[in-house]
Amino acid sequence: MSKEQEYSPLMAEDGETEPSLSSPQRKGIVARCTSKLTRGVLGVIIAIETIALIVALVTLSTKRHRPTCFVTPTPQQVLYSPALDAIEHEVRVYNVGFTGDLSPFQIPSSVKLDQMWSDLYNFGISRITKEEAAQLPNKTHAIPGDPGHYIAELDVFHNLHCLNKVRMALDPDYYPEWRISTTNNWIEEQKNATEHVHHCIDWIRQSIMCAADTSVIVWQWKNWANASLVQGNVAHTCRKFDKIQDWAKDRMLLKTFDPTVRIEDDIVVPIFHSDMS
What we know:
Pathway: Mycotoxin biosynthesis
Distance between the termini: 59 Å
Region (Disordered): 1-25
Number of helices: 7
Largest sheet: 2 strands, antiparallel
Mean pLDDT: 82
Strand order of the largest sheet: 1-6
Family: Belongs to the ustYa family.
Number of strands: 6
Radius of gyration: 34 Å
Organism: Mycena indigotica
Order of helices and strands: HHEHEHEHHEEEH
Low-confidence stretches: 1-27, 55-70
Pfam families: UstYa
Structural class: alpha+beta
Shape: globular
């Protein structure tokens, strides 16, 4: 604000004749009005900035009470995965899983069934490039004896491994090594199996909650039952599993990974943890 605006003459009081437009007093009145208008605009700007500052401080204060490891992505945000380019979608209808609509995996425990499950994920440990590893949201380790490559696993294959172990625990007569303790029967020698299966059940729970399939199961009227019955054979939007398998097979870790060898590198990535419970 200039001194001319700040110290302009006072406006004429009531009853005084308004000066002509060409008089110095009129110029003073215009300057004073301009000064008041400028101060008003500045006042509004300052008020807005003050409100914004208060909102920011309240927001920061609220966030202090949240775990620092928790990250809330926007609906459009997708964490990097080296397999993102392999994702394709298709519409699939699940097998309901009851008589008349069983899947090929619903056969008695056998060598054949074991092989079918193994074929789903036995190539799941991958070797990725350093460039890919540097983009991961969590740091992974370099592969000893394989410069420029890092070990990784797509979580879908770990999920399948876990589900397979739960399946085996459900048939302890065929898989005695996976017999687990029950509420009233603690089996000390099966401690590892029991803990492993409990880990797997909860990991699968978290994975289901994470994926949160929003496909809609419906009820339909059935004349033979004279009732509306739930229908499981509905359409789902799925990622093409064979495309993800192909990606993993092309990057399958063929050599034995030695976890006792420490390799330092210059990759620095943020480490994220989930607080889903």
